[in-house]
Design a protein that fits this description.
By secondary structure, this protein is mainly α. The protein has a single domain, classed as Endonuclease III, domain 1 (Orthogonal Bundle). It is built from nine helices and two strands. Strands 1-2 form a two-stranded parallel ribbon. The longest helix has 21 residues.
Amino acid sequence: MPRKRVRCWWANGDDPLYAAYHDEEWGVPLHDDRKLFEMLLLEGFQAGLSWITILRKRENFRKAFREFDPEVIVRFKQRDLERLMQDAGIVRNRLKIEGSVLNSRAFLEAQKESCSFDSFIWQFTDGKTLRNPGGLTRAQIPTKTPESDRMSKELVQRGFKFVGSTICYAFMQAVGMVDDHVEGCWKYKRR
């Protein structure tokens, strides 16, 4: 019988969607602007909910938000927002839905100023993946850092919504700006 693959505590259950997300996406450096935008919006929608809830609804989010095309979302009108409020396949939070339009506008501005959102967002880690020292326990993994504080402050100043430091840190983990795989996880890398 093959040995069960050991993962970080949050993905060690029996949900294949969570396992695939952990194994294939979480902590992998991401440099595609559209995917970065998707993850930033999804992290905002996740606030107050579990990440598995968002993962289970991700395909519905992609359809509802037109494949997370900021050029399309920025032009959403009131009827689009009402359509989204009626869509049971996504998180129907009016402030978060309205925030997605504001985030699209801010994203496009940051993208234009920096030539890409990738170069803008990765500046907060000097373009590299940060790794916490080995041996950290689950309780020692931070929920925010000075880098996520700076990112949050900058994003808020630019008009982004749902980008508090804790959300920014979760985003940084998700897109590989931070590698927080714990010792014992098959994806853990020694420094």
